[in-house]
């Protein structure tokens, strides 16, 4: 075993003290802002909201384009709205509203359903540059990041939850010299993530051959999961745990993977 990689099982957590010391009072369990949705749907947004509540966040607020307000109203509790493009996605003017709510929160989850809109992508890029606290990218928000990784490569307090295809593109678009393949060994995969996160700021949460791998500042943990892995569910849960343990990034995210077994 290398000095930068440790393994966890669902029955043997690496950081048991963190699991048993979780906040028991909602007032101290953190405030999370979940952002996403477009005029065509809000499935990922609604799922992230429900998952964050289940994961134990103190307060969860949802922010979506106002195009959805006209069709669904306030279906989700604690929902807010920002201005949208004619097609129903966040527009450039929504940035001020999103930043206002972000500063209320302890962290922001960009949950997905943003759609393929260049104005929305530009707004998210600007938001990442203007907001300095915890920011998690999930769903199609990750596609915006990997299209222009410069917006986060040097940004601390960043978690990116991405699948194998997205990780390949992130490496390529970051001009990282190493490539990854689906046939490589877990050891080689971990080594590549070790090198990448030594050079770049974001924490990466990825899945490879039944293992959930967390990489932060060159340190890695892997957890073998013997069931189907729901990337959005584990990413949202990790976001909540990190929110509650901001100084223990890799420990909190790793512990979130075995929380349901304790």
Describe the SSE topology.
Layout: E1 5-8, H1 16-20, E2 31-36, H2 43-55, E3 59-65, H3 66-72, E4 79-82, H4 94-104, E5 107-112, H5 118-130, E6 134-137, H6 141-147, E7 158-161, H7 164-173, H8 186-199, E8 203-208, E9 211-216, E10 219-224, H9 231-244, H10 249-256
Parallel strand pairs: 1-10, 2-3, 2-5, 3-4, 5-6, 6-7, 7-8
Antiparallel strand pairs: 8-9, 9-10
Helix pairs in contact: 2-9, 4-5, 6-7, 9-10
Keywords:
39% helix; alpha/beta; 10 helices; UDP-N-acetylmuramoyl-L-alanine:D-glutamate ligase; single chain; 20% strand; globular; ten-stranded mixed β-sheet; 262 residues
Q: Which CATH top level class fits?
A: Alpha Beta
Major sheet: arrangement of strands: 1-10-9-8-7-6-5-2-3-4
> What would the CATH topology be?
UDP-N-acetylmuramoyl-L-alanine:D-glutamate ligase
The helix count comes to 10
Low-confidence stretches: none
Distance, first to last CA:
26 Å
Q: CATH homologous superfamily?
A: Ribokinase
How does the overall form come out from the CA principal axes? globular
Portion of residues in beta strands equals: 15-25%
Secondary-structure content class: alpha/beta
Summarize the amount of helix as a percent range: 25-40%
Total beta-strand segments: 10
Assembly status? single chain
